[in-house]
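Write out the 3D structure for:
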Amino acid sequence: MIDHVSLSVADLERAKAFYAALLAPIGMEMVGEVSAEQSGSIAFAGFGIGRKGQLWLAASGQQTPTTHICFRVPSRAIVRAFYEAGLAAGGTDNGAPGIRAIYHPDYYGAYVRDPEGHNIEAVTFAPEETDDG
């Protein structure tokens, strides 16, 4: 079980703005910051739901190789909103929303590269929503 993950970034302010926009559609927001003085080394910013940081950005320089992180979400509409928010915030397309049957017949995901090259994904296994509910 994973409690949280960290990404190393060169520009913490740019990363905070990008992730605030990217993660809003999935219900995550910045929940805490730790200054370099507080940590004794580098600054951090944490994103999560409620008070718990699940994704931490660490101002420790551009990370190589980059990382892939996937967030599971409850609907295809949220996958699409995540993707659009990421592009609007300065991310680049790394796979438009759609079925990835190679992984699973119901694997619906989208991929956005953040400004430093990390591949961030949202996925759901839920069927397409309909208006006749």
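Residues 5-124 form a domain with the 2,3-Dihydroxybiphenyl 1,2-Dioxygenase; domain 1 fold (CATH 3.10.180.10).
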